[in-house]
Amino acid sequence: MPEIIDFHMHFMTQGTWEEFAKRRLASDVARQHSEKKLKIGGNESIVLPESAAQAAQWWLEHLDKNGVAAGGFMSGMPENQTFYDFLSKSNRFIGYTWLKATDPDAPQVLEREVKAGMRCVKLYPPSQQFHLNDRAAWPFYEMAARLDVPILIHMGITMGYQADLKYGNPLDLHAAARDFPDVTFVVAHFGAGFLRECLMLAYQLENVSFDSSGSNMWMKYLPYPITLEDVFRKVIDVAGARRILYGSDSTVFPRGYRTQVLQEQLAVLDRLDLSAEDKALILGGNARRLLKLETKYAVEVASRG
Q: What is the dihedral of CA 104, 85, 294, 97, to 10 degrees?
């Protein structure tokens, strides 16, 4: 089995959730909406770790159970000491910061975060309500280019209370990716409903990649039938295996690691006519390259499923 590095995971403790809610969910309606979102997936209740140490223990157990070597974890806010403490518990935890590209201080915060050990930055235009082609974001992209840090972007549909889909079209990325060819932009969830636009971007811009994270339920909302195998085939045909990164979008407990997502994507990759090299790139090699990982991880694999 090739090395598996999950490019798309989320970090959350009880304390960081409360801080996030205080900062970004000012109204009771917003808080209730977001708490409901967390419970999607059949969980009657959400159990969050009480500390960075407990989160580390839980996630290491889940990574081992699923044979996952390492995970890229996103903090819901920058310069988060609890998140730093979590990352310090294991080199199998890879840190991503979370910024709004048009904020005037975003370049400086990104520089500090990279110095603190962050290896990627997450943008969320539909929720943060900004356009990726807003020229106010150009200083941020310039900093990302100078620091050689990849940018992960959630485009397309989202269930966040603050979401506004007018900011969700991946074509907004075209001008930025064109003007900053040395920055690798990774569109999450295959564009979360904007597959056609993602394929256009992939055709025109070699510095645009995609992650496969989550259940990809957006396929249900398209006006034509399509399977996850179809999606992989299309993206591989246009972008190649070197520009696809496996992700689970694992977030909360008791669900923990999204084993079903991993199993489904492993089954899809097995059905595709891929070389062993291309399969290894998707499952972990591309993440290792983009995140500049040198460590070889010791994984205690219990079982999958």
A: -20
156 contacts 108 by C-beta, under 8 angstroms:
no
CA angle 78, 84, 87 (to 5 degrees): 125
Q: What is the DSSP track for 27-45? A: SHHHHHHHHHHHTTTT-SS
Alpha-carbon gap, residue 187 to 170, rounded angstroms: 8
Question: In this structure, what are the phi and psi dihedrals at residue 293, rounded to the nearest 5 degrees?
Answer: -90, 125
| Structure token pair of residue 264 | 């489904």
pTM for this prediction: 0.92
Distance CA 271, CA 61 (A): 29
Integer distance in angstroms from the first to the last C-alpha of the chain?
15
DSSP bridge partners of 97: 121
- Tell me what pLDDT residue 305 has: 42
pLDDT tens-digit map of 68-104: 999 999 998 999 999 999 999 999 999 999 999 999 9
Task: Return phi, psi of residue 76, to 5°.
Answer: -75, 0
Side-chain-side CA neighbours of 175 within 13 Å: the count stands at: 10
